Amino acid sequence: MSDPTPPVVPPHPSRPPEPHQHVPPTAPHPAGQGWDSPPEAPSRFVPPAPGQVPGPAHAPAHTPVPAHAPVPTRAPAPGYGAPRVVYVKPDPKVRRGPVRARERVLAPDLARGLCLLFIALANTPVYLWAANRSDLMSTHPEAEGPLDSLVQFLVHTVIDARTYPLFALLFGYGMIQLFTRQVAGGTSESGARRLLLKRNGWLILFGFVHALLLFSGDILGAYGLAGLLLAALFLRASDKVMMIVVLCLVGLQVLGTLGFVGLFALLAAIPTDVTGGVPLTDPSTAGLEITTPIGDIGMENYLLAMLWRVGQFAIALPMQVLMLTVPTMMLLGMWAARKRILEDPARHRRLLWTTALVGIAIGWIGALPGSLGHLGVLDLDWYGMPDTFVHTTTGMAAGAGYAALFGLLGGALSRRATARAEERDAAEARATDPSGGTSGPLPAPASGLHPGPASGSHPGPRGLTWAIVAVGKRSLSCYLLQSVLCAPVLAAWGLGLGADLTSATMAAYAVAVWLLTMVFACVLEVLGKKGPAEVLLRRLTYGPAAKG
Predict the structure, then answer these.
(1) 52-60 long-range Cβ contacts below 8 angstroms, 24+ apart
(2) In the Cβ-directed half-sphere of 134, how many Cα atoms lie within 13 Å?
(3) What is the pLDDT of residue 168?
(4) In three state form, how does the secondary structure of 158-206 look?
(5) How far apart are CA 146 and CA 357, in angstroms?
(6) Percent helix, percent strand, percent coil in the chain, to nearest 5
(7) At what angle are helices 325-338 and 384-432 packed, to 10 degrees?
(8) pTM for this structure?
(9) pLDDT confidence band for 406 (50 / 70 / 90)
């Protein structure tokens, strides 16, 4: 004979709890669900005493049932009345602070640390303000020897227009990580979105101050502006919508690049006797000329250089977003974070290997014509100006390939650290257990996570990897420190030492600057301190929760 008492049924998913239902403010809210959607697990029910009317005192406990727990169906005892299932409304306030040490993922920190070396090398041509320049389509000056030629070839092929797409992808990845942590910690989706918008708004201000005081080639402002747009438009979008938009943006850039190449091919086909003896594909036809020194770096008056940098920042900020490279790569990073690709590289090994091999190949092959043309090995002729667009478009593929490569490297380093920990634990067990037995290895962390001291028994990265990761954890501070070590020393308004350097010696200076930032980051890592720029940004973003 079946039990006639009806089972416990949750409220309708389109309605919030009734007014009489008590909603505890501190219960966590499942990630990815809005207030209109009920969580998957009900809170615990505390029944009233027999004959007592249920009220707020018998609200569910603050400790939630684990996720995916089934809805209880046991009928209430006589006299208790039907139990109520109460869904917890998330708190619109920030319920937790920034990322903790044990929550960090190895691959992004490793990528950011090495990416800062690439950024230092990519900015080297800017500081050679007194060098001779004959190629309008390249930021590199004329090579003064074979070593200069080699450095310029490597930087143009491997680094130029390939580094900031990688950083944009990592930036988007971090946005989703921050959003997910906040929602899982009890902050509502709207509260987490406001937190992201606030953080990106402060980044724009950081970029403006950076450009005002030191360096006009700032990237923080563009990342902040693109982050504002994407956080407002795509945080609630599905993975499928994200990928469709990414493919559409990539398609637009590829079609635009092919159209630009085709246009210049047609212009090159017009006989010069029709155009007055001057090819229409010659940059001088458009009134473009090479000027030396370049930009604010070559100005001796600091105030005039400051005005120049402010104007350039105001123009470059929207242009960097409208050119679509930054938002495209950032949205791709958001999609990858939804899939937890860098947290679990072993699960996505085939995708990572394919992306690394194909992406890097496209990026390097796309840069070859411009690299060889600048060195005079290849006569680009009409292809000189379109090559700039080809170089930028193929740079997105290289940026994605680099990110995939760092994901694979981070997974391999984490597995190696876990193996070392297991061997150490086994050796300690054999040394302390007279019978020689062991209790078995400790469970390994996710393959992409930092197996550092916060995880208990697993050692973190060692040696050079540890140092690079320390830089990656403080990427904002180290990025700004590069400008402090370069601009006042090399610019004409400072000591002006950039006038005496070549491409090779400037590259050596850039590596030395990166190593100095590494020493700075390692000292802070040993002391257990965050970077000063990170501390300031977190206090401005999180407020009182920054210390949580």
Answers:
(1) 54/81, 54/84, 56/22, 59/21, 59/22, 59/24, 59/86, 60/22, 60/24, 60/86, 60/88
(2) 7
(3) 96
(4) HHCCCHHHHHHHHHHHHHHHHHHHHHHCCECHHHHHHHHHHHHHHHHHH
(5) 29
(6) 60, 0, 40
(7) 30
(8) 0.77
(9) very high
pLDDT, tens digit, for every residue of 510-527? 999 999 999 999 999 999
Taking alpha carbons only, the member of 398, 445, 498, 463 closest to residue 123 is 498
User: How many residues are given for the chain?
Assistant: 548
Cis ω for the linkage preceding 92 (within 30 of 0): no
Dig out the tokens for 62 from the structure.
Answer: 């603050």
Q: Quick one: three-class SS letters along 137-152? A: CCCCCCCCCHHHHHHH
Residue-wise pLDDT for 52-111, tens only, equals 544 444 444 444 444 444 444 344 443 333 334 434 455 556 566 777 777 788 889 999
Q: Which residue reads 């990656």 in tokens?
A: 472
Spatial distance between the Cα atoms of 62 and 28, rounded to a whole number of angstroms: 9
DSSP state of 75: P
**What are the backbone angles phi and psi of residue 207, rounded to the nearest 5°?**
-65, -40
Give 187's strand partners: 91
DSSP SS3 for 57: helix
Say how many Å lie between the first and final Cα of the chain, rounded: 55
Structure tokens at 512: 């030395």
Give the number of C-alpha atoms closer than 13 A to the C-alpha of residue 87, restricted to the C-beta side. 24
Going by C-alpha positions, the residue among 347, 381, 344, 387 that lies closest to residue 365 is: 387
- Please check whether residue 338 is in contact with residue 238, taking contact to mean a CB–CB distance below 8 angstroms: no
